[in-house]
Amino acid sequence: MASIIVDERLTLEILSLLLQVAWADDEIASQEASHILDTAREANLGDDIVDRLDKCLKGTATLPPPNIGYLREHRDETMAAVKRLIGVDGRIDVEEERVLVVIRDLLSPPPPK
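Predicted structure:
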């Protein structure tokens, strides 16, 4: 079952990121789609958002890219959500592993100036 993420903005940003991760292998497993939609429903995001996510999962709509700076501020929760999604279909595709590394690097604090 999906984990409830309490903050609505963070939930939306994470869901936007999860959509990108789910599409990393050019297909959406039914478990991945269910996980994303369940997360939105459990967070009480509303039918309009759930419908939009469903369209995104079917490839008929898109969401804006996630705000990486904001997700960086919530790195642990974001990485945990990504790892849950990647493991939900019982297999980890090579592309999903690569995406996980990229996300980890993107969410790492920038080097000091």
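Summary: The chain has a mean pLDDT of 87.
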